[in-house]
Every structure is written in structure tokens, then in C-alpha cells.
Amino acid sequence: MKKTGLFFGSFNPVHIGHLILANHMTEHTDLDEVWLVVSPHNPLKKKSTLLNDRQRLMMVRLAIENYPKLKASNIEFDMPQPNYTIDTLTVLQEKYPKHKFALLMGEDNLAGLHKWKNYEAILAYYQIYVYPRLSSKKVPEELASHPAVHYVKAPIIEISATQIRKDIKARKNVRPLLPPEVYQYIEEMNFYK
């Protein structure tokens, strides 16, 4: 049984913060691997700022080439929208019965977990690995102390993909914030300008 952490995001673009966290989870927890699950366009988000699904998946694949414990997943691309985490978990469990899936999320997301569709089922059947965020959101005690919730002492990374896109548009140097392969790809494709 392979223990697989799921790291959901739009990865627009994937940056070193994502890699630091995903890699930390494979090296400092009992997870065997982490899948970066590229979320398709969220119908509630303005389309203009989001690169198409395939381009974002391509950037994730480029970013993790040298990380054998990290994988890119496009599982949500063919699922009906809007999509809920519980539905994705169900599809993954059916498709990959030899995997034991867990969720990775920032403390800020955990604070709002009780608003998620079927969050009780998520807590009943899946482990949640929580990384710290500089957030003032208070996590409800029943979530913070839930047996399915594991706090991981991970580096606090506050790199924003939104800020990276703004900086690229403003012709600022974002090279240190991106994996070199992703920086190269964004340059070649002239993205976010």
C-alpha cells in the first residue's frame, strides 16, 4: 500500500514554494510520494489570469522532473465542474486501489474545512497533513485536535503565484522564485506578460 499525499492547486505558475512543501512532506512524514493535482479552471475565478490546464500541467511536470517522489496529476481535468475534493478522492480511490491517499493543506485551509462538501467523510476516511501558514485564521478546536489531522513542522513559505504573475507583467526578475525549467518555459512561451 503506497501512502500518497495529494497537494491540490492551480499551480499558476508552480513555484519553488510548492516544491519545498511537497518535497518536505515526502522527506519528513510517512508519505511515500506526493501528487501535485492540477486543478482545472475554477468556474468562480476570472479566466483571464489562468493559463490553460495543459500548460499548467506541463509546468508542474517540468518542475518535478528531478524529484522521483513527486508526481503530476491531471485527474480532475475530466471531472464535471465545479468539482469537490471528496469527489476527486472517490475517483482516485477507485482508480488506484493500491494507494492510501491523504490530503496536504495549509493551516488556513484547515480553518475553513468545515465548509467543504462532505468534510466529515474526508475526516473519517483520509489523513490530513497540515503545514503552517502566516495566517490569522483560527482553526476550530475540533479540527485542530481531530485524530485525522497531523501538523507537520514544515518551512513557512509565503510565495504567491499571483505576485509572481504581477511581477512578470511588470518585467521584474522572478527567476529565484521559480524552478529553472519553469522559468525557461514561461520565458519561451511569453506567459503572463
β-sheet strand percentage? 15-25%
Order of helices and strands: EHEHEHEHHEHEHH
Shape, principal axes of CA atoms = globular
Mind describing the biggest β-sheet?
6 strands, parallel
Number of helices: 8
* Integer tally of domains: 1
Q: Helical amount among residues, as a percent range?
A: 25-40%
- Looking at CATH, the homologous superfamily is HUPs
- Reading off the top of the CATH hierarchy, the class is best stated as Alpha Beta
Q: Measured on Cα atoms, how large is the radius of gyration?
A: 16 Å
* Distance between the first and last residues' Cα: 44 Å
Widest sheet: strand ordering: 3-2-1-4-5-6
Give the rounded overall mean pLDDT.
Answer: 93
Structural class estimated from helices and strands = alpha/beta
For the record, the CATH architecture stands as 3-Layer(aba) Sandwich
Description:
The chain has 193 residues and is α/β, with parallel strands linked by helices. The chain has one domain (2-157): 3-Layer(aba) Sandwich (Rossmann fold). It contains 8 helices and 6 strands. Strand 1 (2-9), helix 1 and strand 2 form a beta-alpha-beta unit. Helix 2 packs antiparallel against helix 8. 31% of the residues are buried.
Concise overview:
The protein has eight helices and six strands, in the order βαβαβαβααβαβαα. Helix content is 36%, strand content 18%.
